[in-house]
Specification:
mainly alpha, 4 helices, 0% strand, globular
């Protein structure tokens, strides 16, 4: 897989805005990380037969996100829950583009990506454990019969 997972930033807080720290601003690095992580999840979902197609964009310091860009990103993140699983903790991000993004909204986007990745990691780890038991399915393989 050529896309790498990048650790999301999920701890933005009001003090970041007051202190004008780097976390107070949504920049090209943040957008690139979010888009890259969405791509990573998309590849995994497709690999494990949860078909999904997302659109992404490469960001640099010159590009300014439009409302359409934010809507696309939010739709991408929301579509993962539609295709795979929507945990109770999954924040509703579908309509974030209709308002001005706040620090908590961006936290929610990145937390949602992390939730889906964590669930995928658990699912994949479960596959590996199942394979270690020696279970094989095929033409000449039989499961033991339960004795009554």
């Amino acid at each position: 897989m050529s896309i790498e997972w990048k650790t999301p930033v999920t701890d933005r807080e009001p003090a970041d805005i007051v202190n004008k720290s780097a976390k107070a601003y949504l920049n090209a690095e943040d957008l690139s990380r979010i888009e890259s992580n969405a791509g990573y999840i998309s590849v995994l979902l497709n690999l494990y037969l949860y078909p999904i197609l997302i659109q992404s964009k490469k960001w640099d310091k010159v590009k300014i996100p439009t409302t359409a860009d934010i809507k696309r990103i939010c739709d991408n993140v929301d579509s993962f829950a539609d295709v795979f699983y929507r945990p109770n903790e999954f924040a509703d991000v579908k309509y974030l583009a209709e308002k001005s993004l706040g620090y908590q909204d961006v936290n929610d986007l990145e937390t949602n990506l992390l939730l889906i990745k964590t669930l995928l990691d658990y699912m994949i780890a479960g596959f590996h454990k199942s394979n270690q038991t020696g279970f094989k399915a095929g033409k000449n393989s039989y499961l033991p019969r339960r004795r009554v």
